[in-house]
Inverse folding.
């Protein structure tokens, strides 16, 4: 989907070439295009019964999401995009400090676009798996298909998704154009 001139230019490229951000920039550069991606798309179909923790302290409040984000690197915050989501599950410690959070936003009435973030000081302890499992189960219970997007180089994100039963099934790359060129 896109303007006729972009579709015509894209016809000369293979599907693999079109998943490459550099190719998309080449196609759109004279029209002010910018590119996001590629992002690997993974999907989950089953509810997980094991969350790996007995009676975790879970918050559903935005204030805990914001506090967690302030403790994380900006690139991680941008990739998780938790403030662009809802239905948060934030694991907090006994003092109420957020350790890890996951959330989703419904997209097109069928997908739950997922995101997860863990404080750098609390990574590799299973916290992300706890909240991402709860969020995934909630999305499935709501009748949605959970979708996980990962940058190809984000090994931790990809491993977390795989540990929760997500399967990598596609790639998403998008070119954004200024309104005046569409």
């Amino acid at each position: 989907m896109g303007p006729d001139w972009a579709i015509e230019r894209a016809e000369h490229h293979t599907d693999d070439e079109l998943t490459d951000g550099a190719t998309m920039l080449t196609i759109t550069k004279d029209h002010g295009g910018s590119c996001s991606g590629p992002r690997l798309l993974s999907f989950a179909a089953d509810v997980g019964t094991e969350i790996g923790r007995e009676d975790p302290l879970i918050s559903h409040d935005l204030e805990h999401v914001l506090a967690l984000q302030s403790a994380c690197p900006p690139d991680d915050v941008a990739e998780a995009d938790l403030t662009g989501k809802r239905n948060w599950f934030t694991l907090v410690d006994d003092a109420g400090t957020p350790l890890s959070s996951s959330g989703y936003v419904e997209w097109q009435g069928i997908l739950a676009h997922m995101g997860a973030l863990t404080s750098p000081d609390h990574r590799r302890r299973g916290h992300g798996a706890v909240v991402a499992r709860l969020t995934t189960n909630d999305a499935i219970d709501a009748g949605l298909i959970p979708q996980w997007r990962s940058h190809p180089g984000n090994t931790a994100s990809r491993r977390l998704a795989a540990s929760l039963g997500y399967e990598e099934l596609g790639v998403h790359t998008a070119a954004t154009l200024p309104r005046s060129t569409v």
